[in-house]
Amino acid sequence: MVWFVAFLPSPSTGVLHLGPLTVHMYGLMLLAGIAACAWLTVRRWTRWEGKAELVFRAGVWAVGWGIVGARLYHVVTSWSVVPDPKWRGVFEIWTGGLGIWGGVLFGCIAGALVVRRAGVSVSWMLDAAAPGILLAQGIGRWGNWWNQELFGKPTTLPWGLKIDAAHRPLGYGQYATFHPTSLYESLWDILFVGVLLWIDARYTIRRPALFALYVSFYTAFRTYEETLRIDPGSHYYAGFRLNFFVSLALFVASTGFFVWWQFAHPSPETIVERPGHT
Q1: Closest by alpha carbon to 69, among 103, 41, 42, 93?
Q2: Domain parsing of the chain, residue ranges
């Protein structure tokens, strides 16, 4: 009898050395995601007769403050896993540790302020950027694969992700393969980029309902994903991770807002506004 052992491999290191140049793959995946988001947002914004320059200007501030917010959320909620010494570890984002909740919140606020000061509709810009943000998240998740982090519970499924012993959480040393939750999320994100684009092309959207739908789609899966993940340093309440409750609350809020905003009191004047209107 022949036994076939199937699993997904993990890279032995998250760092590539190209001569004198050291490349942290986590950071490279973040940059690739940012570039993809900018590309898609510019395409959508200019199709709506907006100026690409505003996307890049708002994007610079959104990315900068988004990284600050993402790191701040991680540090506050997972202080125990911040590398020692702590004063330096809080800045080592290349080792992983960016919370999407803080990143989207700080990034959107910063970008919205730039757009607002330019006298342009923030609602339209949010909807222009929504598919791109989700695309960036899908690409950025591959950085977790390079770092062997944010995987799920042990599994014997053929697509289980092999994790080196040094990266296994305390209490899981006897297991070799785990749910590749970052891969699950990446596939979900990229699939629903297409769904968002299709909905926006097929239906009349009252801005910024598409952004609300992006949050709803993302958190729908993230809520489930949080029942699988076993990240060290996470806070648990009633047997669930903190991020489970954050994701669930955002799903309810974003879905409720979408239904109320899109269907409860449609306003033709709002629907036909273009990006140049505030």
Answers
A1: 103
A2: 24-271
